[in-house]
Design brief:
Blueprint (H helix, E strand, L loop, with lengths): L11 E3 L15 E4 L5 E5 L5 E7 L2 E8 L2 E8 L9 E8 L5 E7 L4 E8 L2 E9 L5 E2 L3 E4 L5 E8 L5 E8 L5 E5 L13 E7 L2 E8 L2 E8 L2 E9 L4 E11 L2 E10 L4 E9 L3 E7 L3 E8 L2 E12 L2 E10 L4 E5 L1 E7 L5 E7 L2 E7 L7 E5 L4 E6 L6 E7 L5 E8 L5 E5 L8 E7 L6 E5 L6
Length: 443
Amino acid sequence: MHENRRYVKLARIGSAMTAALVFPAGAGAELVSKKPGPAALAVGRNGTPYVAHVDGCALHVAHRTATGWRDRLAVRCLPFAAGRIELAGSVVDPRSRVSVLVRDANGSRIVLVRQGPAGFRVQPVVRAAARSVLGIPGLALDAAGVPAVAYAVARPSRDTFLRLVRPDRSGRLKTTAITQKGFPPASLPPSATPVLVRGRLHVVETYSTEGIEWFRDGKRWLGQFLFASTRGQGVGPVFSAAAGDSTWTAATLLQPTFGETDVLLTERADTETTSIVFSHALVAGLALADGRPEVAANESVEIGDGVSTAGLVADADGATAELDGAVAGYAVDNRGSRQLLLSTGRGREWFTSPTRPATRVELTAGADGALSGRVAGVVSGTVDIFREQARGARTLVATVPLAADGSFAFRDAPPGSPTLYRAVYRDPASGIPFASLLRTPVG
């Protein structure tokens, strides 16, 4: 993990304003859906994985059974245009009922899809007023296992308003105002998420260059600053989780001055400590294992007019594994096993591992087509080597055996145009595709 940079501790502020499902050991990769598109992973209390995914404007919810994945059409057509649908999160309550939070990509509307005895229903959360924009919302369960939504809205005046939404006993959604009078001012709508801390809901909000954790104190809401930067702009979702006296928050800060997109990890306990986990990625998930955080992210590498993506997973000490595909979901289940959802060329693939994905693959390449590398800690098996070029073209050029020390080598024809190479090693037990993608094209 990189050393802390440009982050300071700030003061508190007031608002103005069933039985376990047993997975077979070494299950390997499991294809949930062949079609690309938004997806979200949630894990039930018994460890059962659920994947919400979009096909056109339809919302599906799949869950894993002892005989395979069972897919269900939840909503025939969401009230958004196809291609503009964002899945902001999914949760599974103690009765194994799924809720999915959906946002229109232009920030005009948020809905909550909730499962009940009669099936799924779409409940409007908020529709933005003219010229206002909704930030990326978040979803969590409260202490009673009821879904809670946090979101912020920004007006053209730079005024913002943070809200918490929960169903009442009749199932109707009720909204609580956390901030008033346009606080905090921000040029872009803040991102927000609820988090359950010692049985009480808090709300984490990130905006501009700062983050705040809000909590109720009597009839008012108070905020504790989490981090502040001298420059930059918060982008994308925010994730938060709590264990004991610690609240962990993962967010992304765009740093154009440094040519970086920093994935920040903040712990709030007796004090606030923020570190940079990745310096060229966007956060994609946060999970706690034995009270310690693990962060998932995606790094994009430009190649011509296309982009190649590397999924990343790291622990709080910065130990990082790279994956072949984009991370769409990351969770730790009731047994401590990690569950991983990847978007790959095959579609949406699910994996499970008893420990954090940690295998490291190394790769170097020359303009003459010479490639070499190593899979750390592995003494046998093979590595697939792919050539990736503009417009998403990807070609398998070789499957190379590993030497006893985990090393491998191959010579490709000298690339005639800018080319990225990627080496992929599939773990024989979990099926997880560990990888190394070049960050600079050759050729």
